[in-house]
Amino acid sequence: MSLVIQEHARARLIIDGPDPRPVPVELTCDADAPQTVHVRLPGGVDWAFGRDLLESGLRAPVTRGDIRVWPCGRAQLVLELHSPDGVAVFQFDVAPLIRFLHRTHEAIERRAPAPAPAAPAPAPAASVTRA
Prior knowledge:
Layout: E1 4-14, E2 21-30, E3 36-41, E4 45-50, H1 51-57, E5 62-64, E6 67-72, E7 76-83, E8 86-93, H2 94-111
Antiparallel strand pairs: 1-2, 1-8, 2-3, 3-4, 5-6, 6-7, 7-8
């Protein structure tokens, strides 16, 4: 059975107008495919991309394909998604994202096979003294 890490977050959809619109977002990562995270938006829209993209975007702007991620100050991150229908820009507080990423790393470490015990060192060769 696969372990799925989930984190519920609230993002702000940046729209034309004075106030961004808050939207619920679900972050998921399957421990059997830990390199991929899913961001599920309202309406069942699911974007999948590399976990490393999200991690890198916490520190510096990064783009991969139709997705751009960059830090916005010290406490927020911006996720920009491009599709044939247009562009959606979301602003997240970083705390739930960091919590989610920590949980994915912990789950992966727990599922990693234990290292094989080290082979015992060979016994030193017996010396034979002949008189």
